[in-house]
Amino acid sequence: MIRRADERITEIRNQVRGGNGDAVFAHIWQSGKAELNENMRLYSVITLKKGDSIGFHVHENEDELYFILSGKGLYDDNGAKCELFPGDSTITRSGEGHSIEAAGPEDLVLLAVIVKI
After folding, report:
1. What's the CA gap between 10 and 104, in Å, rounded?
2. CATH class entry, domain 5-116
3. Are 99 and 91 in contact (CB under 8 A)?
4. What predicted TM-score, i.e. pTM, was given to this entire model?
5. What does the pLDDT look like over 66-117, one tens digit per residue?
6. Which of 19, 28, 33, 42 pairs as cysteine with 53 (C-beta 3.0–4.6 A)?
7. 11-17 contacts: CB < 8 A, separation 24 or more?
């Protein structure tokens, strides 16, 4: 199966996980439409404008991976904060928490994948 970039379903979510502003989710494949197997919950490109964020949250029975495509992010990895840049990646395991904020002058664009365990 092939999905072209212009065929992605885009969704704007406000104050994701208690964060600031909006997060634009461009779903590459969707879990609720039998496109992903039962172990995958999310496979999307997420865009955050400067100052917008996904608030701190803990994952249970799932892992989340981020891959930074463009922009600069301020990442909270279980209370340890650091900057992220294009090419950097993160993994948040079940029982761990994280948040991310767009911290540069350009949009922060990342690939996000959530896998149930």
Report:
1. 23
2. mainly beta
3. no
4. 0.96
5. 999 999 999 999 999 999 999 999 999 999 999 999 999 999 999 999 999 9
6. 19
7. 15/55, 16/53, 16/54, 16/55, 17/54, 17/55, 17/56, 17/57, 17/99
